Amino acid sequence: MTSTAESPLFEILTAAKRASTALASLSPAQRQEVIERMAFFIDRRVDEILSANKHDMQRAAKLLETGEISRSMYDRLKLDENKLKTIVEGVRQVSTLPDPVGAISLARELDDGLKLYRVTSPIGVIAVIFESRPDVLPQIASLAIRSGNVAILKGGKEARFTLTVLFECLQQALGEKGLPSQSLVLLHKREEIESILKADGLVDLIIPRGSNQLVRYVQDNTRIPVLGHAEGLCALYVHEDADIDMAVKLAVDAKVQYPAACNAIETLLVHSTIAGAYLPKVAQALFAKGVELRADNRAFEIIESEPGAPEAGSESKKFPLLVRSKSEDWTTEFSDLILAVKVVDSIEEAIDHINQHGSNHTDTIVTAEPATYEAFFKAVNSAGVYWNVSTRFADGFRYGFGAEVGISTNKMHPRGPVGLEGLVTYKYKLAGKGHVVEDYSGENARQFKHRDIDL
Amino acid sequence: MTSTAESPLFEILTAAKRASTALASLSPAQRQEVIERMAFFIDRRVDEILSANKHDMQRAAKLLETGEISRSMYDRLKLDENKLKTIVEGVRQVSTLPDPVGAISLARELDDGLKLYRVTSPIGVIAVIFESRPDVLPQIASLAIRSGNVAILKGGKEARFTLTVLFECLQQALGEKGLPSQSLVLLHKREEIESILKADGLVDLIIPRGSNQLVRYVQDNTRIPVLGHAEGLCALYVHEDADIDMAVKLAVDAKVQYPAACNAIETLLVHSTIAGAYLPKVAQALFAKGVELRADNRAFEIIESEPGAPEAGSESKKFPLLVRSKSEDWTTEFSDLILAVKVVDSIEEAIDHINQHGSNHTDTIVTAEPATYEAFFKAVNSAGVYWNVSTRFADGFRYGFGAEVGISTNKMHPRGPVGLEGLVTYKYKLAGKGHVVEDYSGENARQFKHRDIDL
């Protein structure tokens, strides 16, 4: 097992980089076998893992009392037999997914005997910084190894005992298959995050999974590419021709089903033509679920014009949960039962609002017309651009990726939910018979043929 | 035409971001037409462009005298009728390339009526910082518009007059097709680079094309993704079973054909078994071309043991161009007729040297054995990993991409020579009939079907 207690991090990261060469050289079957053995060892040591988790929970209970960790962190820390079974199944599933390495996306003969291929390949060394949830460790470790990457895993100290036993199971699998132990590295100290952020040349990708503050801190303090998102500011736009009942159902699901999720909506945009019919209905449904609406003036007046309950709100005379929006509401991720509502006069205004204020995560339109959706899809530059669907579907499991390491709001690849395919890059393979560039230069230069090769 | 003289850059970049929505909404044919008209207007104004270029050359001649610009910058500034013809042809060719937008790389029915597609899409706003060569402007502008992206182009002041006329031609095409003028923006002031580096949220990608210093400065001072490479440190490895004549020919081409290119080799690694036979031959060929060899001790002794010329070098008693390597030679991009040479005892040692000291650009192996190449390909994590071929083939035109905006040594996409395909990202399209996540949660949760859809 890799311990960082005595050795400086530089040596560990250098060894991890070397280990990435060994991992990249494995066959798909070898990578699959390691994952299967990981599942096997976790399954065999369930009692030990649960007992370590009990220990963590006892310490966490004290941290909860003193306010050092939140209730939701405390809840997410807990493992039981069922949850562990799901973890083992999850790891096994990663071994059954299609291999992401070695796929050819371009094959071209540049000239006689000079063949070019673009082939997917592991990225190298991936560092993942996460909090609380111990199930993240086997999930990320299995995705990383399956895609031929080394994973440096920095967990939260509140999960230390649980993570240590889980990590031992993963190391048993590596050892049994003769892989370098530094193929997976577990770190515990907060200070070690600094060393990772500075390790360009050794670490190829950083995935922070945690608070918006953590993600922003990582983005601001490293030259290494960062995968993930600081904010999930998603919008639902109800076009003039929308099916009103569907649009109500979608708004409720996208806001209420799990308000803390990054793919929950924070903004509801409604076309002015349909606002009079739609807003009172959706307001009623959302108020019933305890959602506070921060409405722009036009939306406010429409909702307020309906017969309401006798209790007065702070601003509305009829609805305690109806307030007037402030400008910062359009750029705030509430992560709570709060929704900003705005009336727009055209789809262009909706698109402009989303592209200016959104976070390029996931946005959805409700419309009956395919051409309207196509225009929305082309113009909105977010990782997910949906049609008549709740934004909450933005998730690696729901997309059928088996699992995800995170959701990327980057404009560049990988984008959206990132599973195995997002954990590989590509290399160009060029094979010749002594071809030199000199022959293709100057007078009487040989011409390239650029014939595509059938795969 | 967009002028930045009076308006602050923020407003221009905001307008450029808006223009990117308009560009993303164009059909492939519309994007093609704009490019064709760009070629037309450049062709029509050849005389004017040449006269502006003459003006720039006169000013540059003075800068050359005072040492403010280098000879190579001066040479690259010059346009003539033939060069302009090539530029026009290059732009026309971009309009004939396959469309990079709208390609579907994943199509899956998640459940009845709930369909997921991954579709290539424009990135948004791309800023390109370049020096001297005015032909870069129409090349990058045409690649950007063809891929649906806005380009912010910051040229060198030495090319100001030429760029201004070329840019007017591009703007004529935009205007004729009714596109926002901010679809292409030309900047001239050095200070404006600062504003671009700080414009995250408005600029999606920065491509610095210039000195290593410029690239590193950009990488160190922005949160925006940077495409390109600060260094091109390429290696050629001669395995024990290599065809010696082929390996000599490849080393000469890769070093001598254009030593200042990023894809020229800086390091020659030779297996010890073949070193005695290969090194004297390659040294002779390289000395004949004026290449200085910085050899490690084993390589030095082998070359020195051959009969040589009577003139003494500084270290070698026989060859003036033979010197002993220093440790910094393994990490220096000479960009000149200098080559570091090292004897290794195994392919593993060669791979380790390349992964530790190289710049992940392009590396090549000379070997007779396909399995040896496969091992090299898997283990070396560079954008190009070649077999029996000169590294100098790493180039968008040679790959058949039509043109390139640069060569990326990033580990993440896009990697290697970047043409149209590298200038798009993807979005997830999810279309349903009012599907909500709630139905797939809790007890009696609906199960996903995840059926792949035939394209």
Describe the structure.
Chain A is α/β, with parallel strands linked by helices. The first copy, chain A, is 39% helix and 21% strand. In chain A, the strands form four sheets. In chain A, strands 10-9-11-8-7-12-13 form a seven-stranded parallel beta sheet, sandwiched between helices. Chain A has a four-stranded antiparallel beta sheet with strand order 16-2-1-17, with no helix packed on it. In chain A, strand 12 (362-366), helix 14 (370-379) and strand 13 (384-389) form a beta-alpha-beta unit. Residues 1-7 of chain A have low confidence and may be disordered. At the A-B interface, helix 1, strand 2, helix 10, helix 13 and helix 14 of A face helix 1, strand 2, helix 10, helix 13 and helix 14 of B.
Task: List the defining traits of the structure above.
homodimer, 455 residues, alpha/beta, Aldehyde Dehydrogenase, Chain A, domain 1, Aldehyde Dehydrogenase, Chain A, domain 2, seven-stranded parallel beta sheet, four-stranded antiparallel beta sheet, globular, disordered N terminus
